[in-house]
Amino acid sequence: TQTVVVAVDGPSGSGKSTVSKRLAAKLDARYLDTGAMYRAATWAVLQADAQLTDPDGIYKIVSAASLEIVTDPQAPSISVDGVNVDGPIRGQEVTKAVSAVAAVPAVRQLLVDLQRKIIAEAGRIVVEGRDIGTVVAPDADLKVYLTASEHARAARRSAEHAADHAATAADLRRRDHLDSTRKTDPLKQAADAVVLDSTELGIDEVVAELLRLLDK
Ligand code: C5P
């Protein structure tokens, strides 16, 4: 089987996870959720009671934590020091704090290195995040920038978490602002990315379009 790397970037709630998992399964490839890595790092920071305003303290904790990542698109999973954190990393506490941890340059360097290692070992892999096409895997075979209207993004997230639409919309806006304005590796469209809008296309159509693009 040939190697293939697909980079899927975009703001929160754009459908990246669903699209990336389905595409990986269709390609018989691995799936890496880099957001889950930043979330797991954040979980470790919160466990240790570190100050979110102390980059050195944050880095110390993250660099001492060992992340184990399962890249099966049917059952992706992540553990920190042997503790499965799939549930807690989706909670409010982690979601609120993650952009601060992800803004620490030394943390990004550490996780980007780990991501590159996982990609190299996998060979065939779909990777989703914010900086995959721009920083982590600039040589990816296909770069996708997935968007959706803010309304559609908030609706998806609030359905997933049984949360209030207005509160979810406010959280997405806050996170997207932090993620796209931070100094190190902000959320940005790669110059050569294919831009797809999942508001109009729908998830299945997006996956079909990506398979078509990879076939070319
Ligand atoms: O994709 P998800 O919403 O789970 O990502 C959680 C957070 O992790 C983002 O809001 C962002 O702060 C950070 N992140 C990042 N770079 C990535 C993936 C996620 O900074 N490649």
Automatic annotation (TrEMBL):
Gene3D superfamilies on file: P-loop containing nucleotide triphosphate hydrolases
SUPFAM superfamilies referenced in this protein's UniProt entry, alphabetically: P-loop containing nucleoside triphosphate hydrolases (SSF52540)
EC number per UniProt: 2.7.4.25
Keywords assigned: ATP-binding, Cytoplasm, Kinase, Nucleotide-binding, Transferase
Domain Cytidylate kinase: 6-214
Bias (Basic and acidic residues): 171-184
Catalytic activity as recorded in UniProt: CMP + ATP = CDP + ADP; dCMP + ATP = dCDP + ADP
Family matches, as InterPro entries: Cytidylate_kin (IPR003136), Cytidylate_kinase_dom (IPR011994), P-loop_NTPase (IPR027417)
First-tier enzyme category under EC: transferase
UniProt keyword Repeat present: no
Any single Pfam family the record assigns to this protein: Cytidylate_kin
Residues holding ATP: G10, P11, S12, G13, S14, G15, K16, S17, T18
GO molecular function: kinase activity
Region Disordered, residue ranges: 159-184
Location in the cell: Cytoplasm
Family (UniProt): Belongs to the cytidylate kinase family. Type 1 subfamily.
PANTHER family found in the cross-reference section: CYTIDYLATE KINASE, CYTIDYLATE KINASE/PANTOATE-BETA-ALANINE LIGASE
Name of the molecule in the record: Cytidylate kinase
Origin species: Hamadaea flava
